[in-house]
């Protein structure tokens, strides 16, 4: 359970990473990233404006890999088919995830690693170190733990849904998606409940790849992450003096694989767990509402057939794809689907393209909660780096739909829709809705 806040200095909660970046680029338009190549899909405007689909469809029609020689993030390969991404993820020795070779996002290492600013985390490690650290946190996400947490998640979800305003427009992202996922993170970390909003603030700063492009904002980002580290170090010291508990920090402290982490590695794993646990579930919770509004026939199916909810969760995760990409780096020269890959080449695995791959998903651009192979989506990755918290994400989403159905709650998009301006996190900043009943 969440604990009392440690004694601490005042931590900032604003401005957000997004607000800081927009303000800077308005004042310094010369810092706007340049994207001269047609298939440079690192540009964030195509996701903000929700017009990325035909670009990836065109690439998939031409082949699974496409080389981009010039971008703000350096040269890279687009990997756009489901088969190619699965193949690459199944070869972790050949295609490295290690932060030492570049890590898991499209960012160049020198952008995120100046002056020793690397953030090692187990998702950005190769075997064998990855194995030990992943095993440390995995017990928090077993089927037994999911069963134990079911009642608490259901209670919190039901209470929040009962508190929503009727007959007026409100922001679903702020009121529901952020509140539910931030609360869940607080429980997982044993994080002070009254400070849980800090987790969302830190997640946005840590997960924004675009803000890391702007050198003038490097210090701002580092200061925010340092504040996060300071807070968690206080929790770490407090938890180290207590008996082992079920929270993630306690698990790290009492694990031989993680209790000797240096401060940057500790912070890196916190960033991983916060961004992974916050942005992904939060954006799918918003994506479900938006997709049901866009495809009212599927909303009607959900309303008439609650037995479809487990499959609807998988289909909504496929359709939304809350993290757009992951990155791998070739550890040696190799041939891949007819293309010559050089040692050190950066391969960007576009999950949102794989999840719309027509060769696997019929009518892939349509939400279909009866889709028989919806579970084959790659939103959680594949292989040794598949999302360790996938079960928890699925549980939260299933309970949300079940509790909405129990209340006969229908949610209409009724105002502004603003998407995240980013090439990594794929989701919504604002989704104004109104509630009726079915």
Commentary on this structure:
The chain has one domain (17-437): Cytochrome P450 (Cytochrome p450). Residues 111-116 have low confidence and may be disordered. Helix 9 packs across helix 10 (218-240), helix 10 packs across helix 12 (263-294) and helix 12 (263-294) crosses helix 13 (296-304). By secondary structure, it is α+β, with helices and mostly antiparallel strands. It contains 16 helices and ten strands. The protein has a five-stranded mixed β-sheet. A three-stranded antiparallel β-sheet has the order 4-10-9. It starts with 16 loop residues before the first helix and ends with a strand.
Q: How do you describe this structure in short?
A:
This is Cytochrome P450. By secondary structure, the chain is an alpha+beta fold.
Query: Architecture, CATH level 2?
Result: Orthogonal Bundle
Global shape: globular
The tally of structural domains comes to 1
Mean pLDDT: 89
- Radius of gyration, taken over Cα atoms and rounded to an integer in Å: 21 Å
Distance between the ends = 36 Å
Largest sheet: 5 strands, mixed
Q: Which strand order does the major sheet show? A: 1-2-8-5-3
Predict the CATH topology.
Answer: Cytochrome p450
Order of helices and strands: HHHEEHEHHHEHHHHHHHEEEEHHEE
- In the predicted model, the low-confidence regions spanning at least 5 consecutive residues are 111-116
Tally of individual helices: 16
Content of β-strand: 5-15%
- Helical content class: 40-55%
Class inferred from helices and paired strands: alpha+beta
Give the beta-strand count.
10
Function: Cytochromes P450 are a group of heme-thiolate monooxygenases. They oxidize a variety of structurally unrelated compounds, including steroids, fatty acids, and xenobiotics.
InterPro entries: Cyt_P450, Cyt_P450_B, Cyt_P450_CS, Cyt_P450_sf
Keywords: Heme, Iron, Metal-binding, Monooxygenase, Oxidoreductase
Organism: Pontixanthobacter luteolus
């Amino acid at each position: 359970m969440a604990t009392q806040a440690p004694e601490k200095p005042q931590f900032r909660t604003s401005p957000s990473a997004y607000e800081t970046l927009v303000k800077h680029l308005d004042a310094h338009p010369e810092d706007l990233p340049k994207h001269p190549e047609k298939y440079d899909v690192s540009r964030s405007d195509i996701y903000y404006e929700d017009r990325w689909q035909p670009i990836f469809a065109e690439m998939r029609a031409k082949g699974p890999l496409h080389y981009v020689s010039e971008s703000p993030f350096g040269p890279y390969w687009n990997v756009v088919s489901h088969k190619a991404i699965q193949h690459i993820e199944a070869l972790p020795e050949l295609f490295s995830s290690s932060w030492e070779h570049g890590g898991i996002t499209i960012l160049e290492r020198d952008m995120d690693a100046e002056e020793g600013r690397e953030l090692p985390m187990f998702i950005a490690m190769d075997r064998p170190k990855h194995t030990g650290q992943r095993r440390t946190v995995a017990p928090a996400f077993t089927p037994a733990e999911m069963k134990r947490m079911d009642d608490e998640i259901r209670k919190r979800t039901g209470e929040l849904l009962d508190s929503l305003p009727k007959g007026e427009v409100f922001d679903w992202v702020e009121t529901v998606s952020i509140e539910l996922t931030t609360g869940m993170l607080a429980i997982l970390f044993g994080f002070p409940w009254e400070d849980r909003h800090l987790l969302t603030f830190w997640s946005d700063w840590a997960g924004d790849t675009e803000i890391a492009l702007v050198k003038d904002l490097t210090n701002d980002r580092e200061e925010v992450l340092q504040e996060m580290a300071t807070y968690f170090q206080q929790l770490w010291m407090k938890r180290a003096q207590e008996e082992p508990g079920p929270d993630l920090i306690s698990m790290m402290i009492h694990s031989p694989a993680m209790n000797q982490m240096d401060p940057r590695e500790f912070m890196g794993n916190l960033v991983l767990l916060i961004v992974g646990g916050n942005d992904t579930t939060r954006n799918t919770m918003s994506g479900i509402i938006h997709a049901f509004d866009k495809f009212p026939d599927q909303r009607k199916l959900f309303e008439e057939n609650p037995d479809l909810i487990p499959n609807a969760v998988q289909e909504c995760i496929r359709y939304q794809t809350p993290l757009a990409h992951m990155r791998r780096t070739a550890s040696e020269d190799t041939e891949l689907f007819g293309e010559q890959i050089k040692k050190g080449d950066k391969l960007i695995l576009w999950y949102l393209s794989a999840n719309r791959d027509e060769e696997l998903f019929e009518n892939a651009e349509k939400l279909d909660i009866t889709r028989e192979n919806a579970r084959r989506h790659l939103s959680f990755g594949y292989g040794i780096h598949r999302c360790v918290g996938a079960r928890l994400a699925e549980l939260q989403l299933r309970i949300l739909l079940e509790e909405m159905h129990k209340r006969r709650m229908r949610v209409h998009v009724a105002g502004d829709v603003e998407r995240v301006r980013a090439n990594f996190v794929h989701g919504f900043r604002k989704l104004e809705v109104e509630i009726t009943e079915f």
